[in-house]
């Protein structure tokens, strides 16, 4: 068996599908609490977890040019794991002229579906007999929310496509995919008019359980788990990988540091200083990564706060 250090990192993409205005609390809960927990667990398997949340992924220009459907379906196809959040909204149904002709030809079944229903069909229902289809669903009962929020906000949580929504839920329930049902309640209305919910903990726990089960199925754990030292190293390697993923520029700074290292015959420490958020961690991560393969340097990288230890 190969040592943990020789196992290459893998990337797992997780698509999160839902209508937008009614599921902001759930998506925020995922971003703040659930995804970080899953990322820590994945790090021990040398796995990068990338969540795809198109709440931020479709620009206004792309939406008005009719690319929304294409972007959503193509992103679904790139993801190993699909998670569908279903409440009391069916969601936006694009008009025929908002879907390109080639998309309608390639996906002839999409006409009349909401964007969310398209994602669910593409990511799960059309693949329900595929053993490699890792999908899970989370059905929210919004009755406790709707009974307390002002009338003007109810359209954010419920729409008029009840028949299509029920048909979609029935189709999901007819599959083997795990379905978790939960009933959050209203805590308060924020100053910007958004309802704040409580009772999402069980939803988050079920989400972690289902996603982790899919990851374990696709990438089983080695017979021998990592030692404490290996586990600690994984966290720091993951930190570096995360920081350098979108690293660009800084060529002059990199040259300057390399020059200092090459000329540092007295072995004096080199300190990289800067304001918070100026990119110190990203730069040092890039340096550690780029110098790692060089026989001229011995690299020991440790980043405070990168691991739970």
Automatic annotation (TrEMBL):
One of its GO terms (cellular component) is Cul4-RING E3 ubiquitin ligase complex. The keyword Repeat applies. Keywords: Repeat. It comes from the Eukaryota. The keyword Repeat applies. InterPro entries: DCAF12, DUF4062, P-loop_NTPase. Residues 13-96 form the DUF4062 domain. SUPFAM superfamilies: P-loop containing nucleoside triphosphate hydrolases. PANTHER family: DDB1- AND CUL4-ASSOCIATED FACTOR 12-RELATED, WD40 REPEAT-CONTAINING PROTEIN. This is DUF4062 domain-containing protein. It comes from Arcella intermedia.
